[in-house]
Amino acid sequence: MTHVLFVCSCNTFRSALAEHLGNLRAHKKGLNFQFSSCGTYIDGRGVDPQLTNLVRDVGLDLSSHTPRAISQEILDQADVVIGMSQEHVDFITENFGKPAYLFGAVAFGRRDLQAEWRGIESQLTRFELNRHQYFQDILVRTMEAMPKIMNTVPRIARLQAQSGIISKGPKP
Fold it and tell me: What share of the chain is helix, strand, coil (3-state, %, to 5)?
């Protein structure tokens, strides 16, 4: 079983969504993946009720998701760690010395997805974009990414093993 960890800021939106979408897809397709998520910090918020309602339409239940903060123990359980933005990748490598990969690069072979996330976020702020549309945009992008991530992650895990990068367990 390949364990993939998604990391974002508060573990209340992007990483939680990726975790639950990944597990749903793996279960439906009978794939040997386990997905989990955490945040670089926890701010006391839970998953937004509007997001919880939206994702029910695609078969997800985020109502029981409990945000959790990153720790060495959580990282040690993962074969591959994916940061939702470059800031998250940098946080993981600087604070834990564990290799982490950028969501957009793993899913789409692009490093510029962070600009796309920020573009959607700035629309929310600048144009008072309806929260439902904001959540819908990220949901669609994450749903597009999951099959590609599931195709790419085994190759990353193999390359890590071949190059001697420790995928599980503490940094030596």
Answer: 55, 10, 35
Q: pLDDT tens across 9-49, in order?
A: 999 999 999 999 999 999 999 999 999 999 999 998 899 88
Distance CA 24, CA 44 (A): 26
Expressed as residue numbers, the domain containing 127 is 2-163
Residue-wise pLDDT tens digits, 19-29:
999 999 999 99
Residue 119's CATH number: 3.40.50.2300
Residue 169 lies in a domain: no
pTM of the model: 0.87
The count of structural domains within the chain is 1
Q: Look up residue 8 and give its two tokens.
A: 């974002």
Alpha carbons 52 and 39: distance in angstroms, whole number: 18
